[in-house]
Amino acid sequence: MNFSAPPEKILRDFEFRNLLMGIFLVLISIPLFRQPRAVFSVLLGVGLSLLLFQYLKRDGREIAARALAGVPHGKILRSFLVKYYLRLLVVGIFLGILFYLRLIHPVPLTLGLSVGVIQLFWTLLELGMRKILAQAR
Predict the structure, then answer these.
(1) What total number of domains does the chain contain?
(2) What is the tens place of the pLDDT at every residue in 60-104?
(3) 23 within a domain of the structure (yes/no)
(4) What residue numbers bound the domain in which 30 lies?
(5) Is the pTM of this model over 0.90?
(6) Fewer beta carbons within 10 Å, N or C terminal of the chain?
């Protein structure tokens, strides 16, 4: 990942790498878990992770635009938190129903939901290695 690129390019690269990591996790879960329910759980987790990242990105842009337009900080924060917690509630209810119906398994779901976190650690490791290698020269 090119960390000297403009922020939008870095964000697009991060999203693309999230997608690749998600595809990798789903493909690796097929022989690892060998159960359709578990593979579906990983797939659902990856899908939710990617979808919620898009919402967070959109909210970040909206916050920046509203701040530049002079909207008071408190109003921006309240608006963001209401939308964020409503979205969290909807996802929680959705997952609760799927758990109740025994359509998903918690461990593979957690693996799928972790795609963004795994990618973040991978990116930070890459950045750290670049700095270490640059100092060694």
Answers:
(1) 1
(2) 999 999 999 999 999 999 999 999 999 999 999 999 999 999 999
(3) yes
(4) 7-136
(5) no
(6) C
